[in-house]
Amino acid sequence: MRWLVTGAGGMLGQDTVAELTRRGEDVTGLDRSALDITRPGSVARAFAAHRPDLVVNCAAWTAVDDAETDEARALLVNGEGPRLLAAACAAHGARLVHVSTDYVFDGAARAPYREDHPPAPRTAYGRTKLAGELAVRAALPDTAVIVRTAWLYGVHGRSFVRTMLDLEARRDTLDVVDDQRGQPTWSVDVAARVADLGPRVGPGGATGVFHATAAGEATWYDLAREVFRCVGADPDRVRPTTSDAFPRPAPRPACTVLGHGRWREAGLAPPRDWRAALRQALPLIRTASPDTVSPKESPRETP
Fold first, then answer.
1. DSSP string, 251-265
2. Within 13 Å of residue 83, how many CA atoms lie on the same side as its CB?
3. CA distance 295 to 182
4. Of 77, 86, 82, 131, which Cα lies nearest the Cα of 104?
5. Do the beta carbons of residue 238 and residue 228 sit within 8 Å?
6. In a domain, 265, yes or no
7. Tens digit of pLDDT per residue, the chain (303 long)?
8. What whole-number distance in Å separates Cα of residue 200 and Cα of residue 196?
9. Residue 175, in any domain of the structure
10. Angle at the Cα of 240 (from 255 to 232), degrees rounded to 5?
11. CB–CB of 70/82 below 8 Å?
12. What CATH number is attached to the domain comprising 25?
């Protein structure tokens, strides 16, 4: 099976190519310079050259705040791009794994969002990502899956975890938001989920939506304290504050904890706890230099 990974210059894209390579898969990773998913000609050339059986779309506009003032450009990448990829997959008989986000939800839930919970985005970024989901499902109702993830961190590029490591070394104390809840998720774990799920995509197999976030939940304050604790720093140096202390153009959802019920349906175990993943990831992140990644392929920044 031939795999094609778009957005291969970003955090998740790099990890997905690495995971598939490790498993011995025939994989090609293309960054935006090699495949611009918003251009029909670029998509057509990529499919003609690589003839993929399975496409993993990691390409996205992830600058959450910038989308508030430039929703049209964000929609081009997050909505029109997936539509073009899905149309090409349909024409060539390829399957698609499309990566989406917790921002398709409003953040008002008091329990984990099920995969079939009605989306209600409150931001331009969320609206554009939902547009991409709808386009993929319309074009490939039986041969695509949507994989929503959130609060990503990893070795490649910028992330909240890397920022906390940097600030721990430079500041005596740190104020971190304690009124937003989610699931800190290592991009390597998401890449493994994509690699597991991909061969199962298709009629009679996996279709619809899956949530690829770590188990458990935390606030940004909880995550920062855990980072400090894991590197031997005093977690009490991290102090709680509210979202009002960090005003942003795009409102952050108060709670986007995602449910994981569909993994067992696909014959796969549910994700592991976020603390276990963080403990494994931190030594790798600490010793790696952050890559220079473009805004449209970088993990979204969070307070």
1. PPPSB--B--THHHH
2. 16
3. 23
4. 131
5. yes
6. yes
7. 999 999 999 999 999 999 999 999 999 999 999 999 999 999 999 999 999 999 999 999 999 999 999 999 999 999 999 999 999 999 999 999 999 999 999 999 999 999 999 999 999 999 999 999 999 999 999 999 999 999 999 999 899 999 999 999 999 999 999 999 999 999 999 999 999 999 999 999 999 999 999 999 999 999 999 999 999 999 999 999 999 999 999 999 999 999 999 999 999 999 999 999 999 999 999 998 655 443 333 333 332
8. 8
9. no
10. 105
11. no
12. 3.40.50.720
Determine the structural domain holding residue 91 and report its residue range.
2-158+185-215+255-272+291-297
Angle value at C-alpha 270, between 126 and 64, nearest 5 degrees? 15
Contact predicate 95/54, CB 8 Å: yes
Residue 172 lies in a domain: no
CA 57/CA 6 separation, integer angstroms: 5
CA distance 66 to 37: 20
Answer whether 20's CB lies under 8 Å from 188's CB.
no
Counting the structural domains of the chain, the total is 1
Cβ(46)–Cβ(30) under 8 Å? yes
Q: Known catalytic residues? A: 125
Output phi, psi for 113, to 5 deg.
-70, 125
